[in-house]
Amino acid sequence: MRVFLTGATGFIGSHILPQLLDAGHKVLGLTRSDEGARALEEAGAQTHLGTLEDLDSLRRGAAQADAVMHTAFDHDFSRFAENCEKDRRVIEAIGAVLAGSARPFIITSGVGLGSVGAGQLAIEQAVDWHHPNPRVASEQAGAAALEKGASVAVVRLPQVHDTKKQGLITPFIELSRAKRMSAYIGEGANRFAAAHVTDVARLYRLALEHHEPGARYHAVAEEGVPLRQIAEAVGAGLEVPVVSLSSEQAADHFGWLAMFAGLDLAASSSWTRERLGWQPTGPGLIADLERMDYRIADAG
After folding, report:
1. Residue 73's closest CA among 164, 162, 8, 165?
2. Average of pLDDT values for 20-27?
3. Is the pLDDT reported for residue 298 higher than 60?
4. How far apart are CA 207 and CA 192, in angstroms?
5. Longest CA pairwise span in the chain (Å)
6. Which of 29, 42, 88, 120 has a CB 3.0–4.6 Å from the CB of 137, allowing a cystine?
7. pTM reported for the whole predicted model
8. Beta pairing, strands 26-31 & 2-6
């Protein structure tokens, strides 16, 4: 297939790219820069210049493809809600191009949207339309596009990691460095699901090759790593104290991260593994946090 891949030069997309190419697919990669275009061409992909703000550029890319894999996202988490609304517009625009066809359209969301109640593992079959994560906008747009005839499936992400980036934990590290402490709330028992980026990239390819309209997949290798363990690993890496904060203290300490720091984002991937034959093999989150070089940690 010829796949239009948004986010092709990003953290996850750059790992999906070789997965697709090695499997014999052709890739039309979205990039906004000449540097990105050169990287895509060197990897063996074709380039499509455009941005998430330029919806016409996205429509043109989708029109040229047999499938669309949308992984691009504006990761300025301080403007997270605004960026989730931007993602809604992107999905609406691409979905309109693909409506009425069988061309796979794989979008991206977060595992929290599969919540079935406090303390329980999120599951693929559930959608919590009232979840506080603004990323619900992505799934709302995907559901609307599916109703209008686009062949939409969703990959829900946990904290995707290697030794350089770890999802929300990357800005957590930067905050801990700036404040000279690594903190959690209360007992720190709330959990973050996680998966290594190479396992996540493989899942995207499998979701494409075994495409099922309306399916939701969880890219979860570890169902839930307690925030206290994460804070302890970060504290050791940065050589700063690890402290417990009250809920009242959390808002001041965490800033915009406070909305995530107290959430329990544990999730199952049992259905995904059974459906796609996906078996994660990469290192765990704590292992990557222990192996990273905190002298060069970058929240970019």
Report:
1. 8
2. 98
3. no
4. 23
5. 56
6. 88
7. 0.95
8. parallel
Counting Cβ atoms within 10 Å, is residue 75 exposed (0-12), middle (13-18) or buried (19+)?
middle
The residue ranges of DSSP E strands in the chain, in sequence order, are: 2-6, 26-31, 46-49, 67-70, 104-110, 151-157, 159-161, 182-185, 191-196, 216-218, 222-226, 242-245
Given a contact cutoff of 8 angstroms between Cβ atoms, the answer to whether 184 and 245 are in contact is yes
Q: Is the pLDDT of residue 202 over 90?
A: yes
Q: Determine the Cα–Cα distance for residues 273 and 217; give it in Å rounded to an integer.
A: 9
Q: Encode burial over 281-293: b for 16+ CB neighbours within 10 A, e otherwise.
A: ebbbbbebbeebe
- 161: which DSSP letter? E
Question: What confidence score (pLDDT) does residue 142 get?
Answer: 98
Closest to 44 (Cα-Cα) out of 27, 60, 63, 64? 27
Residues facing residue 108 across a β-bridge: 155
List the alpha helices (DSSP H) in 76-187.
80-98, 136-147, 169-179
Check residue 87 and give its pLDDT: 97
Of residues 192 and 129, the one with the higher pLDDT is 192
Enclosing H/E stretch for 283: none
| Tokens coding 281 | 């093999």
Tokens of 88: 């809604």
Q: Are 59 and 95 in contact (CB under 8 A)?
A: no
Q: CB–CB of 81/133 below 8 Å?
A: no
